[in-house]
Amino acid sequence: MRSTGMKSTVCLAALLSTMGASAAEVEKSGPLINKAVIEQEAGKTVYWILPGPRELSEEVFGTPDDPKRTLEPILAEVDKPPIRELLQELPILVAAPEAARKTNQAGTEYTVFSQPTPFSDKARPLPPEKSGHFRTTLLDRVGEDQPGKPGNTPDEVKLESEFHDPAGNQYRLEFDHVVQPPFPGYETQGGVFIDGYLHGTTGTGSPLMPKEYTRGAWWGVVDLYVNDEKVDTKVAHLMTTEVVRKRDYSLALDEEIPLEPSERHIPEQEHHTHLIVMPIKPTPEGPVFEPVNTSFELPNGEKQPFIHMMFEEDRIVEWELGSS
Q1: Is the dihedral of CA 101, 311, 232, 160 positive or negative?
Q2: Which of 44, 16, 15 is nearest to 273 (CA)?
Q3: Which value, in Å, is the radius of gyration of the alpha carbons in the chain?
Q4: Element (H, E) at 73
Q5: How far apart are CA 180 and CA 190, in angstroms?
Q6: How do residues 54-102 score in pLDDT, each as one tens digit?
Q7: Of 172, 192, 193, 278, which is closest to residue 235 (Cα–Cα)?
Q8: Where is the signal peptide (predicted)?
Q9: Model pTM score
Q10: CB count, 10 Å around CB of 82?
Q11: C-alpha span between 79 and 67 (Å, rounded)
């Protein structure tokens, strides 16, 4: 399963260490800094994102004469073998390897990242009766990541979610515990992030997503159920952001953000929620690459190795900054 094509297909929004204690083992202490409750009811607009190429932003990735967000400088700052190995296997989690960047005919500009990623323009809208719904509560207790302890965080998350793939298979996630990324430059407020910017040029999250204002986000370990059967345990990432999908559902570049209402997929909707289940399995030795055990078959006959859902009509039920 570790072919180059498969690795490239499963580039993700973030990479997390999953070696920490479970939520039940972490002492919850300190005042609550921020809180958010976000949901989308059943029967509203949901998209299943398919693997595909990604247009490259000059602002984020530079030019062939001056490339940016390459892997080598990031690897130079990683001293933990499991994390280093994972980044080498799945470099698009934090960078875009130059070998897969296509250029214009003159060789002066990057055009697209040619390998399929979860951050593509390819997506399938789901029928209202088989779309999905979610509700999540984010409790942010620390303003900064806890050095050296990626799993030991007082931040908390609650999650209820159910959704379908384009073939009609039913999925459900059960949240286990929050984790925080162990990468140089990552700033996730302890694994629950509220009120700030992620992705793009920020250094936190995959640069293949545009820099986007984020109302709330979390990283954590979830159990995955397909058609009521537990099939997997993986790392997941949820974020509610400004709208970054255009009217034709293409993913905007950094230079195009923020989108005007007339440019958004749903003009009256100011934000939407991304939910990704990543091909990263927590083990006692550390996080390892392993495709997500989905039931959705791609045209090449392989199962899609990640889940990327877009909830386009979400609602922010509660959003408190600086509460105690």
Answers
A1: positive
A2: 44
A3: 18
A4: helix 72-75
A5: 6
A6: 999 999 999 999 999 999 999 999 888 888 998 898 888 899 999 999 9
A7: 278
A8: 1-23
A9: 0.89
A10: 16
A11: 24
